[in-house]
Amino acid sequence: MVSSEIKNFGVMGYPVGHSLSPQMYKAAFEAAGFINYNYIPLQVHAGKLFMAVEAIKGLDFRGVNVTIPHKTTISKYLDAIDADALVIGAVNTVVNDGGMLTGYNTDVSGFLMALAEANFLPEGCNAVMLGAGGAARAVLWGLCKKRAECITIGARNPQKAQALANDFLQYGHVESFDWNSDEFKEIIQTADILINTTPLGMYPLVDDMPPVDLKLLPEGALVYDIIYNPIETKLLRTARELGYPTLDGLSMLLLQGQEAYRLYTGELPDMEIMTKTLKKILAQK
Ligand code: NAP
After folding, report:
1. Which one in 32, 92, 166, 221 has a CA-CA gap of 20 to 30 Å to 129?
2. Which atom of ligand 1 is nearest to the CA of 208?
3. Which residue, by CA, sits nearest to atom 39 of ligand 1?
């Protein structure tokens, strides 16, 4: 069914030109018959975030996605924060309900839905995460929500990893190590899943990978890299060649987008169109 109703959406960030969101959402809106739904990249300097958030209301935007560097700072300008975004401490989606702005974090549901699609049950698992940055917070919260038995964070900066672990101790069994330590190498040997949340291996540095010896992993452990460009990173290629099951970051990206689309429209998008669009853009990069 074609709808002529006008609604505006965008992605706020700086820089924002690299964002895949405009093409992904536009394709989904078009497929759903929302011919007057506009989606634009909104380049917002850090010092102008407050004015930009006010403009969401002034210009009657239905919603915006939020990316670097505004994911944590935007919260103080919003009227309400959803429970997941509150725990994670970052907002990646804002919905405008008649001037009331609510912040959400759809990365956590994207991460968990991607695991579910891959038939991996996090309940009771031993999970090892690499990296302690922004995306790691959503991954860690997802694992805590699903009651992973033990979650180990390995990072190059053990102080940062410890600080992240401390933030989530109340939600589960979380520990942290220097990823070069012998203790960390021992823990890898009991992992059911290894998740890379660092940008090591992301375009253009596609020959990089985190310094873990994948051969230490037990047979059948899932190797999950949340990087989506390239779709198969060096980490995943190495894991696949060693015979481990792998999961790339494209499904998390798509499924967090699906969740934001649902929050914006109350409907689910055509995932086939969204997947095709993203794969096409990534193939050109
Ligand atoms: P971030 O906040 O900058 O965190 C990056 C983490 O990786 C930090 O712990 C950082 O360590 C570590 N790191 C960065 N460069 C490193 C290096 N050269 N060697 C060792 N460690 C390094 O980034 P983010 O927002 O979490 O994003 C991380 C990755 O996740 C990106 O590739 C992003 O595209 C991907 N991502 C994917 C999705 C998805 O939907 N699939 C969603 C979100 C993010 P320090 O703290 O020591 O610097």
Report:
1. 92
2. 18
3. 253
Burial 150-188 (b: 16+ CB within 10 A, else e): bbbbbbbebebbbebbebbeeebebbbbbbeeeebeebb
Residues recognised as catalytic: 71
Residue 257 near ligand 1, beta carbon < 6 Å:
no
Q: Cα 80 from chain centroid?
A: 21
Q: Is the CB of 197 under 6 A from ligand 1?
A: yes
- Quick: pLDDT tens for 116-148: 999 999 999 999 999 999 999 999 999 999 999
Rounded distance from Cα 135 to ligand 1 centre (Å): 7
Query: CA-CA distance, 267 to 3, in Å (whole number)?
Result: 14
Q: How far is the CA of 5 from the centre of ligand 1 (A)?
A: 39
Q: Is 98 exposed, middle or buried (0-12, 13-18, 19+ CB in 10 A)?
A: exposed
Q: What is the pLDDT of residues 10-69, one digit of tens each?
A: 999 999 999 999 999 999 999 999 999 999 999 999 999 999 999 999 999 999 999 999
What atom in ligand 1 is closest to the CA of residue 68?
A: 25
- pTM across the whole model: 0.96
Q: What pairs with residue 223 in β-bridges?
A: 194, 246
The answer to whether 56 and 8 have CB atoms below 8 angstroms apart is: no
CA 202 to chain centre: 14
| Block residue for tokens 């102080």 | 159
